[in-house]
Amino acid sequence: MKTILKISSILILAIFSMLPAQAQQHHAEEHNYVVLTKKVPQLEPILITAENLKTEDGDHFGDFQVIICGKNIADITDPGKMEKFIAKAEKLGVQLVACGFSLNKFGVDRKEVPESIKTVENGILYNFQLQKKGYKSLSL
Prior knowledge:
Elements: H1 2-28, E1 31-37, H2 43-57, E2 61-68, H3 79-92, E3 95-99, H4 100-105, E4 118-120, H5 123-132, E5 136-139
Parallel strand pairs: 1-2, 1-5, 2-3, 3-4
Helix pairs in contact: 2-3
Keywords: Signal
Organism: Christiangramia oceanisediminis
InterPro entries: DsrEFH-like
């Protein structure tokens, strides 16, 4: 009886100790991406890349975010430059993100930023935070 109890205890401990590893393994199967760019025209190849990765990754495609920062940040307020990119990003489920530090530094009114573009206070910090969460990162 003691032997059965010991073996049962060991099996239960082994099963419960494997659960966190399985949860981490499942999460690792999801591919998340973040791209930091300084130029709005680069959104075209970035969104093409997102589209291809979404097809390639299939069910493992997770989150894709594009952080826009730098001296050309005002371009995001120009509907002529942004409409097609915003539409394609929404279609693909890509989140466009504006760097608040850049908006402030280059005097861009946050009210002029399209509603579909998320604003974060510091795009570089936000990029590092996503990398710490396991996002694959690229800066252009």
